[in-house]
Write a structure and sequence with these properties.
Mean pLDDT: 88
CATH topology of the largest domain: Rossmann fold
Structural class: alpha/beta
Distance between the termini: 32 Å
Number of strands: 12
Helix content: 25-40%
Largest sheet: 10 strands, mixed
Order of helices and strands: EEHHEEEHHEHHHEHEHHEEHHHHHHEHEH
C-alpha cells in the first residue's frame, strides 16, 4: 500500500500512476487566498456534488412560446439545448417498455465550433445535473469557453423518470442495519422486474445515445465519486468514443466490498489533521477512536434528535460511527476555511467520550442526523445492489448468502479494519457490506463485470483528497492503475471531493488537463491550508 505521508504536496504522473514525487512542502500558514474565477468555481461546484432537494418526477415536457422545454435550465452567457429521448428500459426485454431520459447541453461561449464535449457525472448513484446547470457551468467556466457541457440526469433520477421507493435518505441511513436490509428488500419488491433497467451499463449507454444525437465524435468524461465507477464502465463499453477522462474521489470497478482501505484511512486521516494542526496528539486520537468503537460495540449511545418534525431517539452504535467516519466526516472539507467542520471537531469529541463525557459526540451526531437529506433512495439502491460485486453468490438463497458473508468476515484480518471490528465497519457501509443481502437474484441485473478489457488508451487524470475516508488514496491509485496512461494527483488537506476546496486548486488542475491532456503546474497544492481542529486537552 502506497500512501502520502501528509508532510507535503504529493503529485505523480506516468504510466499506471506508478511513481510518486514529492514536489512541495506543506506550510501551516494559510498563505494568500486564491481569489477570482477559480475560487468562486470551487464553491459553485458544491451544488453539483452535494445532495439537494429532489426535483419532481419527469413528465411530458411542456414548452414555452419559443418551443423550449419548460424544464430546460438557463445559463447566463450560454445557449442551452435540452432533449428527452425514449430509451428501452432493458435492452433485451422489450416487454418492460421504455424510459424517458433527459439531458441538457450547455454550449461553449467562444465563436467557432467546440473543441469537444465534456460529459459530467457528480456521483451518488442518483445525483442529478440538469437543475444544477448554472452552478456546474460556473464551476467549469474556463472549460466552457471552448467545450460544450453534457448534463444528463441518469435514468431514474431528476428529469429522467425519477424512480420512487418511498424511502428517504434519512430513513435509510438512520435505520439499524437489519432495518436497512428490510428497506432494500421492500424497494426491490416495489420495483419488480423494472429493477433490471437501473444499472451503470444502462446509464453509460444512455450517455452514448446522447453523444450520438449531438453528433459529438468523442467525449471528455468527468466523473466524481460514483461517477468514477460509471465513467470507466462507459469507457469499456464505448472505448472509441472517449477523448480523455478526469476521475475525482475515485475507486476501481473491482473494489473491496468490505471497504477495508477506508477503515485504515480513518486512523491515517486523524493522524494527519492532528500532525498538521498541532491541536491534538496523533497517537491519542487513534487510541481514543479505538476506545470509542469498543464502548459503542457493547453499549450504544442514545441520541435524541428532531427528525421530520418529531423528536426521535436513535441508538448510535459502532456501525453508525463507521458510517459517520466513512462518508460525512471528510465531505466538504475546505468549504469554509477556518471552521473545523465535522472532521475538525471529531478528535475532541472522541477524546471527551473516551474519558467519560458523551455530550460533544452526541452534539455532533445530532447535527449530522438532523442534516440528513430527504431524497428518495430508489436509484441509489437499485444501482448499488445491481452493480456492485458482493462477498456472496447472488444466485444463492439468502440464508446461504448470510453464511458466505459471515465466512468472509471471519476470514478477514481484523488488523485491516483499523480501530473498528470487521463486522462494525462493514455494517457501516450504506452501499456495501451486507446491505444488499436481501436483493433478489431473479428479475434484477447481474453484477457489473469487474474485468474491464476494452479501456481506451487515452489521457486520464485521477484526483484524490489525502484525507478522504470514502474513496481513500489507496482506492484512487487502484482506479488510476486501471488505465495504461494515467496521472495521479494527491490533494493535501482535502477530503471527498478535492474540487470542494475554496482555493480552487483542484479545479484549476482538472480544467487544464481537459484542455491540454497534461497535469501541468501543481504548485497551488502547497498553498492549501490544513484543516482547523478543535484543540484537545493534553
Amino acid at each position: 500500500m502506497t500512501t502520502n505521508t501528509g508532510t507535503g504536496m504529493n503529485a505523480s504522473t506516468g504510466t499506471n500512476a506508478g511513481t510518486s514525487t514529492g514536489t512541495g512542502t506543506r506550510t501551516n500558514t494559510n498563505g494568500p487566498a486564491r481569489r477570482g474565477t477559480l475560487a468562486a468555481a470551487a464553491l459553485a461546484v458544491l451544488a453539483a456534488v452535494l445532495p439537494l432537494t429532489a426535483v419532481p418526477a419527469a413528465q411530458a415536457s411542456p414548452a414555452d412560446t419559443r418551443g423550449r422545454a419548460a424544464w430546460c435550465p438557463a445559463v447566463p452567457g450560454h445557449r442551452v439545448d435540452c432533449t428527452t429521448m425514449r430509451r428501452p428500459l432493458v435492452a433485451d426485454e422489450p416487454r418492460l417498455g421504455g424510459i424517458d431520459v433527459s439531458y441538457a447541453v450547455v454550449r461553449h461561449s467562444r465563436p467557432g465550433p467546440a473543441l469537444g464535449t465534456v460529459a459530467l457525472n457528480p456521483g451518488g448513484p442518483g445525483e442529478t445535473l440538469i437543475d444544477r446547470a448554472e452552478q456546474v457551468a460556473g464551476a467549469l467556466q474556463g472549460v466552457l469557453d471552448d467545450y460544450d457541457l453534457l448534463l444528463l440526469d441518469p435514468r431514474g433520477t431528476g428529469r429522467s423518470g425519477r424512480l420512487p421507493c418511498d424511502v428517504t435518505e434519512a430513513e435509510y441511513r438512520l435505520a439499524p442495519r437489519a432495518g436497512q436490509r428490510e428497506v432494500v428488500a421492500e424497494c426491490a419488491e416495489e420495483l419488480g422486474p423494472r429493477a433490471r433497467g437501473y444499472t451503470s451499463a444502462a446509464t453509460a449507454d444512455d450517455i452514448d445515445a446522447a453523444r450520438e444525437r449531438l453528433g459529438a465524435p468523442r467525449l471528455v468524461l468527468y466523473g466524481m465519486s460514483y461517477g468514477t465507477y460509471l465513467m470507466p464502465v462507459f469507457a469499456d463499453r464505448h472505448p472509441e468514443r472517449v477523448e480523455s477522462m478526469v476521475l475525482s474521489g475515485a475507486y476501481p470497478v473491482a473494489f473491496d466490498s468490505l471497504a477495508r482501505p477506508g477503515a485504515q484511512q480513518v486512523s491515517l486521516t486523524l493522524r494527519r489533521i492532528c500532525e498538521r494542526s498541532g491541536a491534538c496528539d496523533p497517537d491519542t486520537a487513534v487510541h481514543d477512536l479505538a476506545a470509542v468503537t469498543g464502548r459503542l460495540r457493547n453499549r450504544p449511545l442514545k441520541v435524541t434528535a428532531k427528525l421530520d418534525g418529531e423528536r426521535r431517539t436513535v441508538l448510535f452504535t459502532e456501525d453508525k460511527l463507521a458510517d459517520l467516519m466513512y462518508e460525512p466526516a471528510t465531505r466538504g472539507i475546505g468549504l469554509h476555511p477556518g471552521e473545523p467542520g465535522l472532521l475538525g471537531a471529531l478528535p475532541a469529541a472522541l477524546h471527551a467520550f473516551a474519558t467519560g463525557d458523551d455530550k460533544p459526540l452526541s452534539a455532533l451526531v445530532r447535527g449530522e442526523m438532523e442534516g440528513t437529506g430527504t431524497e428518495d433512495q430508489a436509484s441509489f439502491l437499485a444501482v448499488t445492489c445491481n452493480d456492485y460485486t458482493p462477498t456472496w453468490d447472488p444466485n444463492t438463497p439468502v440464508s446461504e448468502r448470510r453464511r458466505q458473508y459471515n465466512a468472509a468476515l471471519a476470514a478477514a484480518d481484523p488488523a485491516d479494519f483499523g480501530a473498528f471490528s470487521p463486522k462494525g465497519w462493514a455494517a457501516g457501509q450504506t452501499d456495501g457490506g451486507d446491505n444488499c443481502l436481501n436483493w433478489p437474484s431473479r428479475g434484477t441485473a447481474r453484477p457489473q463485470p469487474t474485468d474491464l478489457r476494452n479501456l481506451p488508451d487515452v489521457p486520464v487524470l485521477v484526483l484524490s483528497g489525502d484525507l478522504d475516508t470514502n474513496t481513500p488514496e489507496v482506492n484512487s491509485r487502484l482506479s488510476a492503475a486501471q488505465f495504461r496512461h494515467s496521472a495521479f494527483v494527491s490533494v493535501p488537506n482535502s477530503g471527498h471531493l478535492p474540487e470542494m476546496k475554496s482555493t480552487g486548486c483542484a479545479l484549476e488542475i482538472s480544467s487544464r488537463f481537459i484542455r491540454t491532456g497534461e497535469v501541468g503546474d501543481t504548485s497551488c497544492l502547497s498553498a492549501i491550508p490544513p484543516v482547523t481542529v478543535v484543540p484537545v486537552p493534553r
